Amino acid sequence: MSIFMVLVIVMAIATAGYFIGRQRAVSKEGGNVKPHSLPHYHGWWVFLASALPAVLFIAVWAAATGVYLERSAIAELPTRTADTVIASQSLELGMVSGIARGLDRLSDAERANLPQTFAELQPLLASKGVALATEGQDYMIPIAVEWNRNTAWASSVGGIVAIVLALAGAVFGLSGVNVRARARNNVERIILGALIAASGIAILTTIGIILSMLFQTITFFQSVSPSTFFFGTVWDPRFAAAGSGGSQGQFGLVPLLAGTLYIAFVAMLFAVPVGLFAAIYMAEYASRSVRSVVKPLLEVLAGIPTIVYGFFALVTVGPFLRDLSAALSGGYAFIQAQSVLTAGIVMGVMLIPFVSSLSDDIITAVPGSLRDGSLGLGSTKSETIRRVVLPAALPGIVGALLLTASRAIGETMIVVLAAGVAANLNINPFEAMTTITVKIVNQLTGDLEFNSPQTLVAFALGLTLFFITLAMNIFALYIVRKYREQYE
Amino acid sequence: MTDIALNPAAPASARPARRDIGLKRRYAAERRFKLYGITAIAIGLFFLVALMYSVFSNGYTAFWQTEVNLAINLDPKIIDPDNKRATDPNVLLTANYPILARNALAEKLGVPTTNKPAMRELGKLFSEGVRGQLRELVVANPSLIGTTQSVWVLTGADIDSAFKGQIDLTVDQTRRKVSDQQVEWMNKLKGEGAMSQRFNTGLFTYGASSRPETSGLGVALIGSLYMMLIVLCLSLPIGVAASIYLEEYAKKSRLTDIIEVNINNLAAVPSIVFGLLGLAVFINFFHMPRSASLVGGMVLTLMTLPTIIIATRAALRAVPPSIRAAALGVGASKTQMVFHHVLPLAAPGILTGTIIGLAHALGETAPLLLIGMVAFVANAPVTPLDPSTALPVQIYMWANEAERAFVERTSGAIIVLLIFLAVMNITAIILRRRFERRW
Amino acid sequence: MNLMTERNLEKAVNDKMSAQGNAIKMQGKDVTVHYGDKQALFGVSLDVPEKMVTALIGPSGCGKSTFLRSLNRMNDTIEGCKVGGLLTLDDEDIYNPKIDVVELRARVGMVFQKPNPFPKSIFENVAYGPRIHGLAKNRQQLDEIVEKSLRRASLFEEVKDRLHEAGTGLSGGQQQRLCIARAIAVSPEVILMDEPCSALDPIATAKVEELIDELRENYTIVIVTHSMQQAARVSQRTAMFHLGNLVEVGDTEMMFTSPTEKRTQDYITGRFG
């Protein structure tokens, strides 16, 4: 019995419960007593009483049996020795489950005379659409067969229990149908529970982010010491062969952090004046018609995916700067196509709309009475802006700039395509540097082995990035919030 | 400090001497300041135009592909030299179809098939994709064998570039990718009308390929579609439910404060961090398949959720309290009030926010790289569990290819992506204009 | 209360003196104001005599604030606002393109309905005007201007120990007096006040009114007010507006004792408004 089948049956029972419940509620009306809830609330209460426990049970059962089956399969695998062919246990397990999946698709006749060697089995399964790696071993076949048998057993037991639960729930719900029964309150309580659960997902996500990265980072720090990670000035993870004692890999954060901050700095250097002045002009000078055209156009810049900016940097800005520098110096291109400058400028363009729309909001939030006060004294518009509006808006703008900076630090696609991959530690903006995000992508694309430091370092980098941006965001949101209160 | 300044006591008839309040200097500053603002806006708009120009000028040609019309003789001696096709189905699958196309082309251009070097040059004129094209034709209808069929076949990527004028033909032929001989043939075919640009349907149907002319966005489009559906189905109900709780039910407490700060923070967490989360939790912990659009969709859901929650809460807050009071006043329960009155009134705002959130998710690349969507997937995924790529990821992969033809394809793919985004955003704007209500 | 009656008596004496008639400082002839398609003022002609307090009264939305804001062209800041007719300051058309609006506002200062001190220190608030206009040659002069202005606004004694604290930290009445000091610091010829006491409590109001009375010695003042009593207390001339028209103008005493127009009478006796 597949999970899907069980779900269909449970839903059918619950739906039937809905109609019967509603019917019963209708039939009980008509006396002198005013019914507490409308009939369809009784229907829904029966539906929920029947479906909810059953579905929850199915979810828990599926997860639990999954873990149990995996455990028992691992227990049956031969002890790992130095000359085990397959690189890791998880790979081994993956193959067993692959075989099991393939066996599932065989007909009864084929299953009756199952080939006992993997070499024979592989083409048979391949013909059923399950392609398996060639390193499969003969001993996996009985384990897979056993696995399938256990799965079938577990799912039938689980299915029966779920259906019984659904029926029991329906009966319970129906027995409670009564003129004065508070079906609506029951239903609403469940709805509220669902609403609370939904808002819990936001917290769960944060916890998930922190925990998942923390665990991998702790594993990483078991092979590489935190001090060499945080203070190392060389990034060269290639030589860190896992477990081949002695040669520690070089996982220095410093060049990556320097590159990240440098590029973000160049981007801010470009974006802040442009975005701020654009915002000032739009908030204080532009007529409504100009504003209604220019503002959406600038916001288009914010809607363009970062990969497009990356491509723009790669094929247009980078080569342009290189050719420009070659023309200026008479042949020698002192600006590399992939450089801090290229990435910084293009990232700056991406940030313009962030700076401008955030600052625009903040500038327009400055009360008009302050402007009137200043203009009434005979100051020019620019004097009013520079001496009254901007100082009043300053905390909010600082918050907005912090938010923008945190976006610059976490930006990935532009730097992946435009900044280069060489982990240099230099101060020349015309040369390539790399960033934390680039290295996370580098370390995690391609084949992964979850217990090598080369993979795990990405999580340590991610955690570092997360905390840097988190600190900036919290601080920025705090400032912005505080600022908003000031004028409310 | 002079007394005169504070004492405009002189009679009005004898006007006070005009004070010098530095007007000239101050107006110069005013003009400068205004100029800075205009310059800043000009810079922003300049880059918008430059970016769009760069993409469109590089990319619009990608929607046409050069093809050559050949009268191909489906010669049974070449397709099935041993005449075993009745018994062995593999014969038709493995036959040497490119030879057929080459011979047809040689005949058309009057090149003797015995001229080996010329034939080799000739063979590079059309794409290797002709193998699959003819195979499909023959396998679908084996009775065509022995007949002569008029078929449009793709040219090679270099010929395509040359035909579109993207290769500088004035440089010496050893330093470019098409030979003079090929150019001569190309021009001849063009003159006869046998070679021309046709609408590039392959761009939307082909999967990954190492040859530019046979690589397309097919897999990426399906993958992105699956992901968008998953994001929509998960993030909209969860986001709306969470917003309703926070906005309508939750009392202000330490916990709701934490949730609030949390959501604002999640909206600002770098997207790549969500990729790490997906990799560690969904793939490493729950053993979900790598490269699957299901995982991609779930990661993007977590990323989009804060955006939708923030938009939904704003929409709920915009519904005036008087509506709530009216509903409660006629005896509706709080839940009835929310679902019967507040939610329908907030729906346009919620929908707008959702579409904008989806548009963001559609363009997001970084987290998808980490969960293995950078994959060479040639066959269209059937379910969300099959390996696939996504539109922006495909752009990333093509951007890393060096060939000119791939630059064209990348730009073409970006145009497709931008059109999708534009449609989504315009829909959102229209929705907002149409249903916006001022209370 | 005792103080108030005393002041009223004194004022009555003053009024008699002013009835001799001062020179005309500002003049409006057939002034019209449009906000977009809506007309707010329909041909108002009004003289503002020098060194007197002219009160503009009338029910809400009657155009009195609009007229006031036309006098130093604060209406320019509102999009779609058009002013027609003639408005002069010392016989010069202030809407003449040759007239500089910045200079005009330096001569015709304004105090607003709600106290709007800048989020800066008390000192900086007052020093702002002299600074932007370059009225002080050095720090010492600036200090003097600030002190004198604060003294004239009867605020100096209250804030002299905390000149460098935020102006927003003062009480409402102090804030409004700070705004008046800020306006005085520029040494304007005319001060426009747009319901300067509407956000203040009675005690603060009394202080500000007292201040207005003192300022009359050196400045021409135009004040918009909602309160009949206030107009009676502080002004020598009163102009009554209704629906964008000037109903009646004359000596305050006359207006309140024997108005010629029925509408004025009704308004003063509280029949509408």
Strand content of chain C: 15-25%
Main sheet specs of chain C: 6 strands, mixed
Low-confidence stretches of chain B: 1-14
Number of strands of chain C: 10
CATH topology tier name of chain C:
Rossmann fold
Q: Briefly, what CATH class of the largest domain in chain B? A: Mainly Alpha
Using the 3D structure, state the CATH architecture of chain C: 3-Layer(aba) Sandwich
Which CATH C-level class of chain C is it?
Alpha Beta
**CATH A-level architecture of the largest domain in chain B:** Orthogonal Bundle
Residues in helices of chain C, as a percent range: 25-40%
Number of helices of chain B: 19
Q: Sum up the overall morphology of chain B in one term.
A: extended
Radius of gyration of chain B: 32 Å
The CATH topology label of the largest domain in chain B is MetI-like fold
With helices defined by DSSP (H or I, 4 residues minimum), what is the helix count of chain C? 11
Distance between the first and last residues' Cα of chain C: 26 Å
Subcellular location (chain B): Cell inner membrane; Cell membrane
Protein name (chain B): Phosphate transport system permease protein PstA
GO molecular function, one term (chain B): phosphate transmembrane transporter activity
Domain ABC transmembrane type-1 (chain B): 221-427
